[in-house]
Every structure is written in structure tokens, then in C-alpha cells.
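Checklist before submission:
- one chain only
- standard amino acids only
- sequence pasted in full

Submission:
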Amino acid sequence: MKVTVENKKGLEKDIKVFIDKKTISGYLDAKYEEIRKDVVLKGFRPGKVPTEILKRQFGKAVYGEVIDKVLKDTTTKALEDNKIKPAGQPKIDLKSFGEGKDLEYIISVTELPKVEISSLKNIKVDEYSVKIDPKETDKRIEQIAKTQNNFKDVDDNYISKNGDLVVFDYKATVDGKDFKGNEGKGTQLVLGKDLFIRGFDKQLVGVKKNENKKVEVILPENFPEKELVNKKAIFICTITAVKKPEDIKINDEFAKTLGAKDLNNLKELISKQINDEFKNSLDMVSKKQILEQIEKQNLEDLPENLIEQEVKILSQGMKDDELKKNKNSLENQATKRIKTGLILNAFGEKNNIKVSQEEVNLEIQKQFKMMPGQEKMVKEYYEKNPSAIDGIRGSIYEEKIIEKIKKDAKVNKKEITKEEAEKILKEENEKNIKEQEKMHNHDHESGEEKKPKPKKTATSKKTLTKKAKPGIKKSKSTKKVSKK
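Returned file contents:
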């Protein structure tokens, strides 16, 4: 194989590949030997069909299959040998081919630019930790205590009111007839919450223990027995207990009901919980600081085809007139994302950052926990949408890269109060709003009416390199994102 690389404009290259007919003939002979053992033709023993017969029968199909494989293998080798990483799928132009002929073709490719990442060591980032005031922890524990149901027994003459717990057995009928599920034992209702059948618990206000109470309600639209929907049902209820709410004492016993060892341990856990709530948001602020500095890195040549692809993603759902109005904004946004993605990807490759299947599985398991009862649906979704798994892989890949950059960066550690954290997050939110308004006003002044920001979509790293590797998914927390 002879390979000649011709530099064209910018990052565009033409790679001429020449493979002599003798080599091609060798590929064909090997293929005929491979299929010979499986071909059965009348008049020939298995595995003994002459090559000339095979050529007459299968020549066109065999040649096509062989050439496809040769093109795939030699294209990959030509790119790798010349250290060319394509931005997108290379184009193949056959110049000479055919059985008994040399194979000559041209690979037209846009090369990924060389990316300098040494300057990323100069990145500065704030790392926040929130010091939680003990009063904040106590306040949160009090709020939790109020949500816990705690009822105490009362004497038999106590009359129920809103907020009390009523326990009862019942038997219901519609038009004097029983129906499926018309009996219940030990049913509990907190009066005033209206959580059973609409208007049911109101009729239990004023009852006493051991009293019988007739309750009349209209069965709702979501009632399991569809033929009874919107019909009047009569419930004969036997009140077995009435209990009134009691404030929970915040002590070691209460702490144990929440899984803590004692009250001090509960305070430690709640303090950490509050800190973690702020940490996630503040980490996004730090991440945005990193991405904004990466955006400012110098990277002159950018593949035009990747920018065009990114614009198509950003403009999904736009009409032609909207696309025309927003063209400049979309191209600027696409350029920033492609540049950031290329830099992050180069850093990831340089530092040998990889995403294991185990990490992807763990992330999917997290989603199972976030959607209890819908695990099967989530599982089927990922089985039917491999690109969604690529998105998860890309998101993990980006987070690992950002974490590594942060580790090597000049970190300014800041311990702040809860109030200071809230102020930082508020200012960051206001800043984002102003940036969006500024972009909108700029477009308006230049005759462009900017459409609301399109749905964020990750671009797989496969669009940047021939070899499939993890992609970088746009962060959901920042307006400026990396793309792979």
C-alpha cells in the first residue's frame, strides 16, 4: 500500500491510497477459500468447487465484500500511520477499481486541530465549603419532626376533629349491592387531609370510638371498578380508635427512628445534608468558572463541518425564518462548544481518562432509584436507545475531566456561611439571566430575534474521531458547554 498525503485548505487533507492488483487478488483468493467449504453445488464434492466456478456464481458479491473490507482496513491504517484524527466521517472517492485492476482511491478528510493543553494548569477556581450554623441544623430537625405522624390515645368520649387520626372498619355498597373491594379493616385517616375519597374524612369529624357512622360519597374517576365511577356509595364505618396529634420530642429516641445513633449523630447527618445541598450547586459555579476559562483558550482552526453539525443540533425545531434570524448566534454558540469540547477531549486523552462500563451501570442504577416502580421502563428505554447510554458515558467523561482539571488547577478554598452561599448562588443566577438578556438584545439590535435556547443535546465524540471513544455531554448546569 502506498499512501500520499496532500494538504489542502486549513485542516482539509486529501490522502491518496494505492493498492496493487496483486494484493487485491490475494484478498479475493482468501475470500474464495473461505466460502468454498460452505458452498454446495451439484456435481462437486463439498469444499471442492473450483475457483472459476465460484467466480461465475458469486464473483460480483465477493468482489464487493472484499473491496468494502479493504477500504475500511486501509483507510483506518492510512489515517493512523499518518497520525490524522478525522473530524467526522472521511469521504472516499474511488479512482480505479475492478477485478484484475489496481485499487486507487482518495480519502478526503477534515483533520482535528492540534490542541495545546499546558495552559490549563493556569486555571484558577474557587472551591467552596459551607459552614452550617447549629441553629440551621436544629431548625431543619424541627421541620422534620413536624412531618412525622405522632398520635396518642384518648378516652372513649373524645370527639374527633381535623388533625386527629381516626381508625375504622367499613363495609360499602352501591345501590344496595356489594362490590369488589367493598370491605376494609383498620383503615386510618388523618382528618382534614382528604386523602381517601373526596369528602370522606369530613364526615368523620365529630365521631367517637365504638361509634357507627354512615358516610356517603361519589366514587371518583380513578376508581378501579369502572362501572361504579361517579356513582354514590354508602360506607358503614365502625370507629375502632380516635387519636389526637402530639408534638414529637426531639431526643435520642426520635433520632433513632430516623436511622441515627442518637441526637448528636442526627445533627451531624443533617448538617452534612444541608452542606451537600449547597455543595452540588456551588460545585456547578466552580465548574462554570473552569469552562469559561477554557473558552478563552486560543484555538484558531476549528473544523467547519463540526460547527455545521452543532448548529443543526442547536437549531432543531426551528423554522427556516427563525434559523435565518438566529444564524450568527447559533454559529457563535456552536463555535464555543466545539472549541471547549476539543480542548476537554485533548485533556482527557492526554491524561488517559476513561469511563468504565461499571461507572455507566452505577449511573443508570441511580436513575432507577429516582424512579421507583418504573425500573422496567427505564431499563427498556436504554436497551432501545444506545445513544442515551452514550449520553450517560459522555456526561461521566466530562465530569471526570473537569474534576482532573480542578485537581491540577490553582484552587482558592473558601469556607462560607449559609447566607454567603445563598448570595453567591443568587448572584450567579442573576448573572445568567443578564447574559441571556444581553444575547437577546444584541440579536434584536442586529435585526435578529433570538429564539429561546434550544434543548441541550450532547454530540458524541464519534463525530470528532474515527475511533469511538467516550463523548462529552453538555453540562446541564452551565450555559456554555463542552461537546465531544
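Reviewer check: The first strand starts at residue 2 and ends at 7.
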